[in-house]
From TrEMBL:
Gene3D superfamilies, per the entry: Immunoglobulins
Domain of life according to the entry: Bacteria
CDD domains with a match to the protein in the record: FN3
Ranges of residues in domain Tip attachment protein J Fn3-1: 2-74
Pfam families cross-referenced by the UniProt entry: Ig_J
The protein's name in its UniProt record: Host specificity protein J
């Protein structure tokens, strides 16, 4: 909540085709006032949604990469 200074976001993405055994590697970064980017969180999920919690107010960027059963990233 705004009172606590902690925020959450529900990220959701689409994929044209769901292949069995595919997971998604998530990377959440925040941009500082000086333009630098800092890694905030990473996660791996088989769903097309993920909730990030305990975030400070800021400008975030989410990168989502598909990973198959052999570890190949798309």
């Amino acid at each position: 909540t705004a009172d606590s200074g902690e925020y959450q976001v529900l990220a959701r993405w689409d994929t044209p085709k769901v292949v069995k055994g595919v997971s998604f590697l998530l990377r959440l970064t925040v941009t500082a006032d000086d333009g630098s980017e800092w890694l905030v969180s990473t996660a791996r999920t088989t769903e097309t949604t993920y909730r990030f919690t305990q975030l400070a107010l800021g400008n975030y960027r989410l990168t989502v990469r598909a990973v198959n059963a052999w570890g190949q990233q798309g």
